[in-house]
Amino acid sequence: MTETAQPDVTQSAPDLKALHAAVVYNPIKVELDDVRAAVQEAETAAGWGETRWYETSVDDPGEGVTKKALKEGASVVMAAGGDGTVRAVAESLRGTGVPIGLLPSGTGNLLARNLDLDLAHMPGSVVSAFTGKDRAIDLGVFEAELPDGKRERRVFLVMAGLGLDARMIANTNDDLKAKVGWLAYVDAIARSLRGHNRVRLRYKLDDRPVRAMRVNTLLIGNCGSLPANILLLPEAAVDDGIFDIVALRPEGFFGWVQIWVKIVWENGVLRRSAVGRKLMSMTREVRTLRYLKGKRLAIRLERPEEYELDGDAYGKAIAIRTWVDPGALLVRIPQESEIDSDQDAGEAKQSADVPQ
């Protein structure tokens, strides 16, 4: 009896040396020698090829060099800088299937905070970039119509804001922020409150009718947490395909007190325990805060207003359109992380025309 030869089904191990990472870094925000040392140690341990380095600049905060890294075959792109660097890298990685690795730096680290990543151990974040797993998260796409009629389109990962929030960021002294971090916003708030603080707008949320609203601040959230462990949008999830939106509408000092109690006390303290949540169910909603949910939002403003994305000011807009791009970005997280995304990636749906 002749024995039939069996095909060789053994798969060869992937050639890790053929893989390489990229680091897009802001030279002002990072201690480059420390990052280089951590990356070299991690790439050697993982068996990858030599990492390539791309420096941001005023003219290119990250989008251009990230596209160059992709063209040169990067398997993961680490963002080393502030929230602006992370946003710029994410914009160019959108929909490519190449993950972003988050290296804590700067004062915000907003996305890393919302993903519960370790902000205290940069070498561990580098190791995760080489050996971790990928989590798909949503991106917010934001199109601004400028006062001169031009349009600009960007993405955001955490929040977009209009009104006092954006004016505060625009008024923040960068030198002071570099010295004292988020305390610099106290000075910015004081200066912002001196001017006009009412924003009149018309908006269309998904397929609902056009509505009018007057706000102090409007925040559109892909995530819910801010620095100092402030939980602004308690129901926001980074991979649910939905924006959580909050309108702040205080009337005088007492209105600000109500907002403080709602955000800092109820969201930050009571919501964290069963007893606290029961107490919350017994309280009434306040008029100073209005929460909305939706996938697409179009806004027409009464006058040009400042807007911000992930903590950076981008000027003034007379109208905006924003929508969710579900699962559009892969984030490299530690293998032992218990947080996984159950949201399938989808195609972004364009929002309705801005109400006229």
UniProtKB/TrEMBL annotation:
<dbReference type="Pfam" id="PF00781">
    <property type="entry name" value="DAGK_cat"/>
</dbReference>
<dbReference type="InterPro" id="IPR004363">
    <property type="entry name" value="Methylgl_synth"/>
</dbReference>
<protein>
    <submittedName>
        <fullName>Diacylglycerol/lipid kinase family protein</fullName>
        <ecNumber>2.7.1.-</ecNumber>
    </submittedName>
</protein>
<keyword id="KW-0808">Transferase</keyword>
<dbReference type="Pfam" id="PF19279">
    <property type="entry name" value="YegS_C"/>
</dbReference>
<dbReference type="InterPro" id="IPR045540">
    <property type="entry name" value="YegS/DAGK_C"/>
</dbReference>
<feature type="domain" description="DAGKc">
    <location>
        <begin position="60"/>
        <end position="146"/>
    </location>
</feature>
<feature type="region of interest" description="Disordered">
    <location>
        <begin position="336"/>
        <end position="356"/>
    </location>
</feature>
<dbReference type="GO" id="GO:0016301">
    <property type="term" value="F:kinase activity"/>
</dbReference>
<keyword id="KW-0418">Kinase</keyword>
<dbReference type="InterPro" id="IPR001206">
    <property type="entry name" value="Diacylglycerol_kinase_cat_dom"/>
</dbReference>
<dbReference type="InterPro" id="IPR017438">
    <property type="entry name" value="ATP-NAD_kinase_N"/>
</dbReference>
<dbReference type="InterPro" id="IPR016064">
    <property type="entry name" value="NAD/diacylglycerol_kinase_sf"/>
</dbReference>
